[in-house]
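User
New here, explain this?
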Amino acid sequence: MPHIKANNINIYYEYEGDGPPLVILGGLASDHKLLKEFVDPLKKRYKVLLMDLRGFGDTEVAPPPYSIDILAKDVFELMNLLNIENAYIYAHSMGSAILQTICLNYPEKAKKAILSATFLKIPYTTQMLFELVPKLFEKNIDQEIISKIIMPWLYSSEYLKNPQNFQNTLDNLSKRKINPKGYEGQAIALTNFDSTNWISKINTETLILAGREDIDTPLYCAEKVHEKLKNSKLKIIENAAHMIYREKSNEVYKIILDFFK
């Protein structure tokens, strides 16, 4: 699959499928391998743009620090290079911070927006977690152990109790190429993001998805976004935690098809 130079870095992307453009933006430390299982069925209805964000996967690891503004500009320039005038955009977790920024700075690019597991500012408890992870890498802790530390923050108890779900999740997390500097760069961007004072300026029609059992970005985070985002609706997904699109993929597919009309 191709790379292209946008915003002064080489970005890995996949742009495949049939239908109107749909951009998928993953969260902190996500890459195309982690998202592939979710994205592939969408290609029957949309031409899907999936990219590895700066610092992760097969995209270039530029020296940190990064900012959400820089990551949003990466997406904007990639869309321009691929002649995507505008698109439906689904964005999860850190991706939702990027999408908020796109809707503010480049509003013409988003036909409609879905903010999944979103927030105005990441909770401090969650910030503590992703500040810890690079330190674990520095101590050469096995990646599988790091994944097992992270998983309870991301998935519901009911989901992880199923041995097949647990193993599939662990296998997917293990597929990622993790560069500690890239992780650090994304974590810094996320730590410094705060849309409290400007999100109300966004006019894009938006749907907010929140998992009832999310402890990484708890439900109150999505509710605060909904309060400030005037052209938004809030949909709460029951029996799901942070990784809504993996735990409840069929429900999320239906939501995407219904909202992106």
About this structure: The mean pLDDT is 95. The chain has one domain: 3-259. The beta strands are 3-6, 9-17, 21-25, 47-51, 87-92, 110-116, 206-211, 232-237. Residues 155 and 161 are 10 Å apart (CA to CA).
